[in-house]
Amino acid sequence: MHQPKQISDSMFRAKITKSISFIVLLLVVAVSCTDDPASVNDEPPTLPSATSMEMDFSTFDSNSKAKASDYEQQTVQNFSRAAVTALVMKAVVEANLIIPKTLFAAAHASDAELNDGEWEWSYSKTAGGNSYEVRLVASRVNDSTVEWNAYVTNSQLGIEDRLFFSGTSNNDATEGEWIYYDLRSSQAEQEVSRIDWAVNGTDDVDLELEILSDRNGYQGDTITYTFDGTVKHATYHDNSDDTTVEIELNVETMAGYIIAPGYNDGEQSCWNGDFQDVACSEI
Hints:
- The chain is 24% helix and 36% strand.
- It is built from four helices and 14 strands.
- Strands 1-2-3-4-5-6-7-8-9-10-11-12-13-14 form a 14-stranded antiparallel sheet, covered by helices on one side.
- A hairpin with a 4-residue loop joins strand 5 and strand 6.
- It starts with 8 loop residues before the first helix and ends in a 5-residue tail after the last strand.
């Protein structure tokens, strides 16, 4: 009768050793692939929309005011007061965001390259009368967070590869924060302002801007801005006198309201689609 082949202890140990070695090899390969930036970062992170740096007050522009003047025999004080408030907010926003927004928006027309595990967009763009060389760098902090840093070079300003703005976003680039730095300061990374944002398309925007520097006299001021595709709502908090102004406008009907300290006893003051002052119950 045929007897089963016996396996010696040495042969058994050899087989076990070989099996363990094979498993270790598989683990090494798996870890190597995971650590390889090219395998983790097959595609660059999603660029946040430039809308994350934009508060659009154009509905209070000269065209609307010109239309309001057609009703000069009527009362258009409420809209006019809101338009002035919007003009102030627009000035604060542009002083802080217009150049970084212009430079950041240009990244959407550029191609990213993977460099040492980080994605980099390199391009040139003119903003504010100056030409900038921009290097936008993105790195994944973890599975759900992307870190952004934008460096600029400008010979006229005497700056080279200086950090202009930084921030983080979630992996879908639908929410995050930006921090802006003063390029003219003798100190690098001197914070000027910060914006917290949530953007799910041009018709779903929620932003809050905080001024961190006193370079323009607005330190501590905040502006909040929301747009749901139909209604724009904004508040401006003046830190120097601790007052808040609130305005709202329906971009389809052009009706809206303002609430401001010292105006109409701080009561909500409304206008209709013809910019005429009306009771708020009529809009």
